[in-house]
Amino acid sequence: MMDTMLFLTIIILALTVSAHLVQDDHGYGKDPDEFLSDLSEMEVRLSDFTDMEDDSLVFFTDVLAYTVVNGSDAERYLRDVLDSIYGDSSYGMELEFQGKSIFLGEKRQFFSEMSSRQYSVSIGGSLYVTLSLR
Amino acid sequence: MDFMESMICMMAVVIVLGLYLSFLSVSVAADQDQSDLFNPDLLDVRVKDGITIDESYLYMFLAETDYRGVSIDLFVPFFQEEHATFSVGSLQHEHTASEFMDVLEYENGRKVPVIIRTVLYT
Fold first, then answer.
1. pTM, rounded to two decimals
2. Residues 6+ apart with CB under 8 A from B118
3. Inter-chain CB proximity B24 and A18 less than 8 Å
């Protein structure tokens, strides 16, 4: 009885180690947490993606917050960037601001990796972004 | 089960565990591909009369690994669709390709993603 218990414990430990090693498959630049971190560093001009004739530099997350409510070319831009990195059917990204949300990518129930982040928006409030990878 | 049988069972378990751990270490060592040594952060991508990189890192990478060539393809979505390519060494047998993203200090103070596609050749 004791031997069986010991054997089972060792097998479970071995399987846990194996599963951990197999999961660590994403290389540099593929980690969703890393992508969301990079998102907070991005700065663009307001006129790059909106109809506003304002050339001031703003954080891209501010433009995304604006996009969630009003729509802009930033949505297509972000989709192009995500497609380039993850492939067009390998991710799902949800952006939420002031009770409204938009979704980019593929809606799936199960993803292997997921990361969420909250960004302060300069006009007030917070933008919530969740990135999931297949 | 007497004492001897318990000891034999215990030894069998230890042997199986030892074999598993040695198999695991060999597998992990095999997975440590030399391509993992490539660090796109060290490319030092800049914008000065077009996109430039520090090619000396590519030479250093080739010197430290068994690869014989490396090519880098860069593009900045939306802002610069035209790709910038750089290559060093012999580009004959493609071994592995990877894509990375970095935040680039682009024109007029913008900080935007640059997509870096790397192909390593043996």
1. 0.71
2. B38, B40, B70, B71, B72, B73, B97, B98, B99, B100
3. yes
